[in-house]
Amino acid sequence: MSQGGILQDKTTALADIETLTADSGGAVGPNGVGNVDFVGGTNLTTVGVPGSNSITINQDNVEVGTAQTIGAVTADIITVACGATPGSYQVQSQVSAFESSTPAGGGFRLVNGVRTTGAASILTGTTDNTINREVAIAASNADIVVSGNNIIVRVTGVIGLTMQWTAKLQYVFAS
């Protein structure tokens, strides 16, 4: 948990941050011009937006998405562009499904590999799919598919039901 100390600002009525304290490593104070740098670590990227007073911390190689299906239709929750570098992805996704009128819920854990030529993607096997769902949504499904040079998490709803979906996809890449 971060903590901040207060230093009296002599030029305005506002207070400045004196230190920031992370989970480990001790307090970090500003440099000679009043800045404290947020530097991303392993699988983390930080993005500052000047003028907005905000810094966003993102976990690399993780995508999150939501979708809705009305009836037995498909929806693409997450699409990841493979890029121009040939290589191989190991992909895993967690998908949660909820239908409120019954109500019923379910979960899917998907694992597959994808190879890209840099212009087209190819599944390296059949998606391993661990499924836990209630009877009312037994016809629902989730899968990892490819199209063009993209990795896609695709879901299928159930006839007569409106379903809400949330997914997280995480991958590692070797080239």
Description:
- This protein has 2 domains: 3-59, no CATH class; 62-174, Sandwich (Immunoglobulin-like).
- The model has no long low-confidence stretch (mean pLDDT 89).
- It has no helices and 14 strands.
- The protein starts with a strand and ends with a strand.
- It is 0% helix and 61% strand.
- Strands 6, 8, 9, 10, 11 and 14 form a 6-stranded antiparallel sheet that branches.
- With 175 residues, the chain is mainly β.
What is this structure, in a nutshell?
By secondary structure, this protein is an all-beta fold. It has strands at residues 3-8, 15-21, 27-28, 44-49, 54-59, 62-70, 74-81, 87-99, 104-116, 121-123, 128-133, 141-147, 150-156, 162-174. The protein folds into two domains: 3-59, no CATH class; 62-174, 4-oxalocrotonate tautomerase-like (Immunoglobulin-like, Sandwich).
Q: Count every helix, treating DSSP H or I runs of 4 or more residues as helices.
A: 0
Q: Spans of 5+ residues with little confidence (pLDDT < 50)? A: none
H-E string: EEEEEEEEEEEEEE
The CATH architecture of the largest domain can be given as: Sandwich
* Strand content bin: over 45%
| CA-based shape | globular
Helix vs. strand class: mainly beta
Query: What percent of the residues sit in helical stretches (DSSP H or I)?
Result: under 10%
Radius of gyration: 22 Å
State the CATH topology of the largest domain: Immunoglobulin-like
Give the tally of structural domains: 2
Measured between the Cα atoms of the first and last residue, the distance is 36 Å
Q: How many E strands?
A: 14
Could you state the oligomeric state of the chains shown?
Answer: single chain
Could you report the average pLDDT, rounded to the nearest whole number?
89
Assigned CATH class of the largest domain: Mainly Beta
